[in-house]
TrEMBL record, chain A:
Keywords: ATP-binding, Cell cycle, Cell division, Cell membrane, Membrane, Nucleotide-binding. The gene is ftsE. GO terms for molecular function: ATP binding; ATP hydrolysis activity; transmembrane transporter activity. Homodimer. Forms a membrane-associated complex with FtsX. SMART domains: AAA. Belongs to the ABC transporter superfamily. Residues 119-228 form the Ig-like domain. It comes from the Bacteria. This is Cell division ATP-binding protein FtsE. Part of the ABC transporter FtsEX involved in cellular division. The lineage of its organism: Bacteria, Bacillati, Bacillota, Clostridia, Eubacteriales. It is a peripheral membrane protein. Its main location: membrane.
UniProtKB/TrEMBL annotation, chain B:
Residues 176-290 form the ABC3 transporter permease C-terminal domain. The chain crosses the membrane at residues 21-46, 171-193, 214-245, 265-289. Part of the ABC transporter FtsEX involved in asymmetric cellular division facilitating the initiation of sporulation. Coiled coil: none annotated. This is Cell division protein FtsX. It comes from Desulforamulus putei DSM 12395.
Amino acid sequence: MIQFYNVSKVYDNGVKALSDLTLHIKKGEFVFLVGPSGAGKSTLIKLIFREELPTRGQVMFNGKNIVRMKGREVPYMRRKIGMVFQDFRLLPQKTAAENVAFALEITGASGKEIKRMVPEVLEQVGLKDKGHLLPSQMSGGEQQRVCIARAIVNNPLLIIADEPTGNLDPDTSWEIMKLFQDINRRGTTILMATHDSGIVDTMKKRVIALSNGCVVRDEESGVYRCEL
Amino acid sequence: MNFNTLKYFFREAFTSLVRNSWLSISSVGIVTVSLIILGVSLLLVVNAEKLTKSVESSVEITAFLEESVGRVDRDRIEEQIKSNPAVDTVEFVSKEQALKEMKESFGDRADILESLEETNPLPDAFRVKTKQAAAVPATAKKIEQLKGVEQVRYGQGVVEKLLNVTRWVRYASVVTVTLLTLAAGFLIATTIRMSVFARRREISIMKILGATNWFVRFPFVLEGIVLGLTGGLLAVLVVDVGYLSLINKLKISLPFIQLVNEPRIILTILGSMVGLGVLIGALGSWFSLRKFLRV
């Protein structure tokens, strides 16, 4: 579903983020993206999401060439990708339910659909009775659940999570990971950048390790193994 | 764009207006003040224009004829004056008529002129009006050279000064109105940029969730239109009420000053104020957003 062909990315300020990277991720996979800071994880995510364009090479998502995609097609491509962030990025003045509804409103969904979908998704992430709370009234773990609910409400093909457990304590992290595993079992592809070696080692999923903009390791049921 | 999205746009624009009520009120205030100044200067311009027009149209050339000029020569001179394309009307004023007019202008004291009845010293004359006031000095010079014309009067010096003043008034008002429109535009663009800046996080989240540029932009543009429209309507209210009461006051206390009060002109000015408010609001939002949409 995601293919990188000889992708290089050099930023305008001369920083080389990725060099000649080739990578394939199949539909339904659960992939951990590991590596030290500055290895190129964020750039890789930005390229899939088309926040950045590669300097060389091609990126495919869902059979479409993202690099050659027209600007006005980008929003519709992004609706097939759910994003989860370390810092949640919820709208502070909207309640949990409103934050989730917002993702539907953007696609032009009807009020009826929104009323049906939002409680369903909130229940799925275990926030059935907390839809009326503002992000500031919730714990970090609960906020991350709202963020996940928002990411899955449009039935995306792919979920990209950028260190989703970076701000959470270990117990909460595990609950969040179970949630991701549930989502993955329903067929959604998951790409997760993380520094949490405990989680990577226990989950036994595919691990892609980046270093200096290159794939240094790519193995099924891999471990974190911070080699330097 | 479907109905749900439209509903969302309006709800979003209005909640944002209420949520940022302080900013909204100051934006409306700025629009109102700018447009009031603009409206007042537009009214000044139309009134100045009317005044200069009426002063200019009263400028005329009087060509006094020599005593010896007979009927035939008189017709010839009239033909010659009329042949000048700058001339609008030519009116013959006989010496008897001139005396009568003089008496009228003296009013109650006309008895002073009684002794003149028998030996009227006033000459025959032509009163010439030009199509444009600016053509008066040149036309006067030409008439003066005609045979049989003794003297030409048109308020030499005064007319030139008056023409200078009216030209200056026109230039000054065009410059003032242009500058004020630009100033109002910049102030509103800045205010809306602040509102956009306060919500840049929200905009980036919208882009991440796959919102189209139009979807992000429209509520802001709508917000700008509402701000501009409100400010425009307030300004129109103030200017209209103020101007009408000024007209009524002047009618009583200074009846010889006639302000422009044709409804068509006033409505055009007020309408363009509202229109400009809406336009400034919409364009201000549009340009303020451009930078933030590149994600």
